[in-house]
Amino acid sequence: MVPTTYYIGLSTILFTIGTMGVLLRRNAIVMFLSIELMLNAANLAFVAFARQLASIDGQVIVFFVMTVAAAEAAVGLAIIIAVFRHRRTINTDELRLLRW
Amino acid sequence: MVEPLWLILSAAAIKALIVTLMVLQLAGSLGWVERKASALIQDRIGANRAGIFGFTGLGLVNTLMADPLKFLTKEDVIPGNVDHLFHTLAPCIHLFPALVTFAVIPFGDVLLIGDYTINLQVAPLNIGILFVLAMVSLGVYGVVLGGWASNNRWSLLGGIRGSAQMISYELAMGLAVVAMIMTYGTLDLQQMARAQGGMILGFIPDWGICYQPIAFLIFLCAGIAESKRVPFDLPESESELVSGFFTEYSGTKHLMFFMTDFVEVIIVAGLITTLFFGGWQVPYLARDGFHFPGGATLLLPNLVVAILQIVAFSVKLLFFCWLQIMIRWTLPRFRYDQLMRLGWITLLPLGFLNAIATAVVILAWAQH
Amino acid sequence: MSYPLFFVLAALSIISAAGVVLTRHPVRSAMCLVVTLFLLAVVFVFLDADFVAALQVVVYAGAILVVFLFVIMLLNLERDEPETHSQRRTFTGLTVTCLLALALLYLLRQSGTVLPGPGMNTAVPPGFGSIEAVGLRLFTHYLLQFEITGLLMLAGVIGAVVLAKRKVS
User: Fold this and answer.
1) Chains touching chain B at 3 or more Cβ pairs under 8 angstroms?
2) Which of these three, C44, C79, C114, is where a domain ends?
């Protein structure tokens, strides 16, 4: 059986790739996708620990994380649509003015 | 006893192979049934031109041999400026979840070979029906990518409308399934089928529809809407959008999209059969033979029982496939806002009320 | 789960996660994330979390990412232009990421090999990770959180509708 540290290592690598996406990419939607990737890395850590501790609480927390991610994705994408309607771009380099 | 690994793997492989081949064959045959049934309904003859030495076989030669051959040998026309990766992947993404869904649909009880018991279901998952919902969710990608990868405004429109329709009716389908899960207390389809074996009052089969008629109607509507058949076929309305989201696909890719349509018909029919009509159950047939109410029994070897159950499942499956084809050629098409209204304002609250009523009845029964 | 299988799944998910971040086209990015989520669902199944794996495919890959794909297609996003950002920003971003990775891996190293609990090699009680187990825990211990999450989703729905609605002027 693969020890827990390997799963946490995979979770770490995925989290780091997500962070890289948030810091380096300028497209708002790709930044959002990277955030979802980070959330999934956290989910993997939770499920691995749930198995390690034989406790179902980890999986319940994953349920909540998914729900919150869904709500956040809905609102975030609505914001992106609203911004796009006004500025015609979602490149975060060009979205710098608080007021037109 | 615990089966050896080689037996489990080989049995699973053989079952998967048989189920896949039968489903693909049935999908082709349903194409023929559709053309002939529509011809009969519309008082015309239908496809009868292709033949071998004059033998047209009621259009079978045309639909089962000439059409697939034509599709497979046609030139693969790819419009310019498309994303080649997704143009090729979209039909595959559309077909794969549809075929994989059959892994959890049981087509018989058990087959006893020597000392081993083989469950006649390709994959006995303990999350059976959730797997079906998962695959239905993945099927949305085939539609939306197919529409987008065509570099065609109207295909994109058809794709977006189609996928919006699919995700709306997934909810209604899920709620109908939730009511059935509550009734039988399990997610595994094989256990649900096994639980529908008895008789009520001695002569009415103890099928799911006796407990959940509303869920059956919701599931039927939602299933037909999921597979984008008429009357819900605005995404691919033949008279308006040419072929909707798969207009720009020719040859084998078109065949894959077209076949997925019929495979989804078979999926909906298979699920309705398993959830609401007893699956492979034959009235009065138990694992060792017939047990009639008078006390008379007819003991049969396990192989005969298994074959009877598979035949019963096939008969019920074919009936519901035929029913969907009849519905297609009888009803006019829904407008898109009517379609969405039906999904969100009619079926969804009905599904919720049904689930709540089921929960109340189950609790009251438990107190009793 | 055996070591070779884990390494294959890990390698594939890292490659597709890298694809999310490195691809220029947003649609390819989203589809790479779908593949990553699907692979993670497979890992969940091997960790005796069947229900969570099904939920991942139904909710995350099947609903949330479809919404992402809708938005990308409705906004008609093309390939991103080669970024004209400064090299300094790229350097800063990469440095921060590497520092984060090193810090996390160092913590992982220091955590030791003996973790509390039964461990991965002990068999779990039957029914672990099934819908009954998760549902029972969710509706007894975590009932308040469940209801609050319901309110959160309501707020999310209302917020999304209000923000994305076209103002009729």
Assistant:
1) C
2) C79
Asked, for residue B29, whether it belongs to a domain, the answer is no
Contact C17 A37 (CB under 8 A): yes
Q: Tell me the residue range of the domain where B259 lies.
A: 77-367
pTM for the complete prediction?
Answer: 0.91
Alpha-carbon torsion angle B87, B93, B94, B98, nearest 10 = 160
Whether residues B125 and C50 touch (CB distance < 8 A) is answered with: yes
Cβ contacts of B163 on chain C, cutoff 8 Å: 66, 70
Does the residue B44 lie in any domain? no
* Dihedral-angle region of residue C117 (phi above 0 means left; psi in -120 to 50 means alpha; beta otherwise): left
Give a yes or no: residue C115 inside a domain: no
pLDDT > 70: percent of chain B: 96
Report d(CA B127, CA C54) in Å as an integer.
8
Q: How many C-beta atoms lie closer than 10 Å to residue B353's C-beta? A: 12
| Facing residue for B130 by CB, picked from C28, C54, C73 | C54
C75 plus C2 within the same structural domain = yes
Please say whether the dihedral angle defined by the alpha carbons of residues C35, C164, B234 and B353, taken in this order, is positive or negative.
positive
CB contact under 8 A, C131 and B83: no
ipTM reported for the complex, 2 dp: 0.92
Does C13 fall in a domain?
yes
Indicate the number of domains in chain B.
1
- C74 with C135, same domain: the answer is no
Interface touch C70/B130, C-beta < 8 Å: no
Task: Determine, yes or no, domain membership for C26.
Answer: yes
Q: Using an 8 Å Cβ cutoff, are C72 and C26 in contact?
A: yes
- Domain of residue C162: give its range: 130-169
How far apart are the C-alpha atoms of B143 and B105, rounded to whole Å?
24
On whether residue B318 sits in a domain, the answer given is yes
* pLDDT tens profile C33-66: 999 999 999 999 999 899 999 999 999 999 999 9
Residues B75/B233/B219/B327 CA torsion (nearest 10 deg): -100
Count of domains observed in chain C = 2
What tens digit of pLDDT does each residue of C105-118 get? 888 888 766 777 78
CA-based R_g, chain C, Å: 21
- Residue at B20 is within a domain: no
Q: What is the pLDDT of residue A58?
A: 93
Per DSSP, the three-state class of B113 is: strand
**Contacts of residue B165 in chain C, CB cutoff 8 Å?**
none
User: Looking at residue C73, which CATH number applies to its domain?
Assistant: 1.20.120.1200
- CA C2 centroid distance within chain: 23
Domains within chain A, CATH numbers bracketed:
4-87 (1.10.287.3510)
C positions 76-135 inside 8 Å of A (CB): 77, 80, 83, 85, 90, 92-94, 96-97, 100-101, 104-105, 108, 111, 113, 115-122, 124-125, 128-129, 133-134
Q: Which residues of B touch C (CB under 8 A)?
A: 83, 85-86, 125-127, 130-131, 133-134, 136-138, 140-141, 144-145, 148, 156, 160, 163-164, 167, 170, 187
* Tens-level pLDDT at each residue, chain C (169 residues): 789 999 999 999 999 999 999 998 899 999 999 999 999 999 999 998 999 999 999 999 999 999 999 999 888 887 776 666 677 778 888 888 888 888 888 888 887 667 777 877 888 888 888 899 999 999 999 999 999 999 999 999 999 989 888 776 5
* C53 chain-B contacts, CB cut-off 8 A: 127
